[in-house]
Amino acid sequence: MLELTHTFGWLIGVDEKLESHLCRTCGVKKIGNEHLIILFTPSLAEQLLETIQKHPKIVFTVVDAYTFESYQFKGEYVENRPLNSEEENMKLRFMQGIESVLFDMGFDYHGHFNQYADLEGWAVKMKVEEIYEQTPKPGTGKKLTVK
Amino acid sequence: MGSLITSEIQNALQGIVPSVMATTSPDGLPNLTYISQAHFVDDKHLAISWQFFNKTWKNLQTNPNFSVVVTAPQNWAMWKIKLRFVELLKEGELFDEMEIALEAIATMQGAADVFKLAAVLMCEIVSIETQFHGITD
Q1: Cβ A8 vs Cβ A72: under 8 Å
Q2: Which of A6, A15, A18, A112 to mutate to test the interface with B (most CBs of B within 10 A)?
Q3: For residue B2, is it within any domain?
Q4: Angle at alpha carbon of residue B63, lines to B79 and B86, rounded to 5°
Q5: In this structure, are residues B90 and B119 in contact, taking their beta carbons and an 8 Å threshold?
Q6: Interface residue A56 vs chain B (CB under 8 A)
Q7: In Å, what is the CA distance from A54 to each residue of A18, A47, A58?
Q8: Helix (H) or strand (E) holding A77
Q9: pLDDT at residue B110, rounded to an integer
Q10: Closest by Cβ to B30, choosing from A13, A107, A110
Q11: pLDDT in tens, B76-135
Q12: What's the CATH code of the domain at B106?
């Protein structure tokens, strides 16, 4: 599911005042068995990157825009860096996927979606400790794996 | 305080693009869940639909301050709304109104059998910040 482009994802961190900082993501990939590389656009949530470097407990969630299948990944921030060329392409595919979902919902941006899609991306590496199912249904929230 | 919820933001409250709700435990662990409705009550209050919250409810009982991010499908504008949980409602005019609206959203999304309103979280609006101003022609 992580590689699907018709998904909405979010990255979230919490500061010392217990205020949450969150941002839509624009791509994710699995690295080995424990890590994710999560792409996001720092200009949308300027305090997020600073927050997660000080307070490394973070959450990443992803939901399928058509089926609502959803998962929440809990773990720790590891590092951040600019996107490499492969990740730039991944970000482009995800942005095209979001635009396609919106088109299917009846919203045609007439070629202007690049105003959002061209925002600078950044990569965050996350060590995953727990995964929870979050698909909307009775009893949802079950832990799938434990560290 | 004047109305913080502009007509543009109200477009983002209709549930077309799922909104997210971020709560925090007392020890600083974040939790994020998707919400179907953030309902405009008045200039100072929003009501959030409660369907499947578990960890979210636990967090709210110890830390009533939380944030939602809403997105306008018309131009992809996004706002982060900081809220403070005030009261849980399980009946009444507002509950009935939101239940009907949720049924409409669920039917539109093909999920009428799973989207059932359990309760309504009445919340005070603390502040609103724009995350993305939206796409322009």
Answers
A1: no
A2: A18
A3: no
A4: 70
A5: yes
A6: no
A7: 13, 11, 11
A8: strand A70-82
A9: 67
A10: A13
A11: 999 999 999 999 999 999 999 999 888 887 777 666 666 788 899 999 999 999 999 999
A12: 2.30.110.10
**Which of B27, B34, B66, B105 would best serve as a mutation to test chain A binding (most A beta carbons within 10 A)?**
B34
Distance (Å, whole) CA B21 – CA B34: 6
- Taking CA–CA distances from A143, the nearest residue in chain B reads B55
Residue A98 has a pLDDT of 93
CA distance A71 to chain B (A): 10
C-alpha distances (whole Å) from B72 to each of A13, A21, A29, B4, B133 are 23, 19, 27, 16, 10
The answer to whether residue B1 sits within a structural domain is no
For chain A, domains (ranges, CATH) are 7-139 (2.30.110.10)
Report chain A's mean pLDDT, rounded to a whole number: 92
| Residue A33 predicted with pLDDT over 70 | yes
Domain of B55 in residue numbering reads as 7-132
Q: How many domains does chain B have?
A: 1
CB contact (8 A) between residue A136 and residue B34: yes
Q: Give Cβ neighbours of residue A79 (< 8 Å, ≥ 6 apart).
A: A124, A125
Q: Is the pLDDT of residue A147 over 80?
A: no
Cβ distance of A136 and B55 shorter than 8 Å:
no
Cβ(B39)–Cβ(B101) below 8 Å: yes
Q: Which of A16, A137, A141 lies at the smallest CB-CB distance from B54?
A: A141
Which has the higher per-residue pLDDT, A68 or A19? A19
